[in-house]
């Protein structure tokens, strides 16, 4: 996983006021996802795609 994706997750969490565990649960059904990514876990392409899609969704929701 790229450092840029993790930075995008952190920004998304901050903007949405969302906890890392909620984000992981909603994106992948894994409340440890963000914590594990911070510790170096590699995400699959599918998980990366789901994360990016969810970040776009959060951004659109914050605009409305």
Walk me through the structure.
This protein is mainly alpha-helical and 64 residues long. It has one domain. The chain contains 4 helices and no strands. The mean pLDDT is 93.
Look at the structure and give the mean pLDDT: 93
Largest β sheet strand count, sense and barrel closure: none
**What is Rg?**
11 Å
The structural domain count equals 1
Order of helix and strand elements from N to C terminus: HHHH
Low-confidence stretches: none
Cα separation of the termini: 30 Å
DSSP strand content: under 5%
Please provide the count of β strands: 0
| Global outline | globular
* Oligomeric state of this protein: single chain
Proportion in helices: over 70%
- Helix/strand-derived category reads mainly alpha
By DSSP (H or I, 4+ residues per run), the number of helices equals: 4
Kindly list the characteristics that best describe this protein:
mainly alpha, 64 residues, globular
Task: Set out the fold topology.
Blueprint: H1 3-16, H2 20-28, H3 33-38, H4 45-63
Helix pairs in contact: 1-4
Task: Give the gist of this structure.
With 64 residues, the chain is mostly helical.
């Amino acid at each position: 996983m790229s450092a840029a994706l993790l930075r995008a997750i952190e920004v998304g969490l901050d903007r949405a006021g969302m906890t890392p565990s909620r984000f992981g649960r909603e994106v992948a059904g894994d409340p440890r996802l963000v914590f594990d990514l911070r510790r170096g876990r590699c995400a699959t392409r599918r998980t990366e795609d789901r994360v990016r899609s969810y970040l776009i969704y959060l951004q659109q929701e914050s605009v409305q």
